[in-house]
User: Fold this.
Amino acid sequence: MIATSLDFDKPGKQQGFLQVPCSHNLSGWANVFIPATIVSRGKGPTVLALGGNHGDEYQGQIALMKLARELQPEMVTGRIILIPSLNFPAARAATRLSPLDGMNMNRAFPGQAEGAVTSQIAHYLTTVLFPLSDVVIDIHSGGRSMEFVPCSTMHLVADRAQRARMLAAMLAWNADFAFLYADIAGTGLLPVEAENQGKIVVTTEMGGGEAVPASVHRITQSGLRNVLIHLGALKGRERTRASLGQRPTILTQALHREDYLLAPESGIFEIGLDLGAKVKRGQTIGFIHHLERPDRAPEPLVARTAGYLITMRAPCLTQQGDCVAVIAQEVSAKALLKINVPAS
Ligand code: ZN
Assistant:
């Protein structure tokens, strides 16, 4: 159902839109316009780079808009498809979920051709854009609800060769931390669909909260470019952490439920550590204060595993069951490549 004037096979630079039918009370025959840019020249990989999968995560959207304006065909070897604001209605509304249908783009895969707007976009990626692509980059941050230490991320895919290439691309982001995550909150994720199609999938969590420091914009933008160079889609010299005079990326994983701390009750969340800090098992990492009973001692939040504080809840006001912190353990690249994962 999605229409576009873009020709994915045409060399050169094109700016256009994906148009999704959206009939509503005030506009019976409307389309949602999702901006997209294609820059294509010669032989090389096809990279699909996405921002705004969640609308309130703007770091990647800015990085992709800047790249879309700057890229010229002579800078590219292969094809780069850039969609800065994938869930465009959500990006315009500063919400995680689409205001049109209440759906979470990152739980909508594989999608439906004649479903709600979010589901149609997911279906278009599943059936048109992923099959065209060798690599899928999906730039996230914590949005309004979480704040991460800026990190590139990945899933532990079963295919070892795919995993090794994903690991190398994740490290090419050159962030201080890299993070292997587990899906504790549902299925239907965009990266999982792309992984199942055999793609090299590169994802991030570039900070979060509503205030974005300049350093987070810098690592989002420089990491994206370096990964595109690493993948052979953008001309230039790949930078390594060592060449930048930085220590190696700390590789971490949180693959077990115990690594994810959920608020045991509602109240006001106070974090007791800085993001990226080392955490011991049994350490109190924060508190939930009782809004209505300040005379009661606050509920301590105790780490069940040791590692690094990789992310925390951004707003202080917290409901029971909100994820307030994730503790990720350090893992070596060698160990990560050896982990046995049953194919799903
Ligand atoms: Zn996100």
User: Anything to note?
Assistant: Residues 214-230 form the longest helix (17 residues). The chain is about 20% helix and 30% strand. The two ends are 30 Å apart (CA to CA).
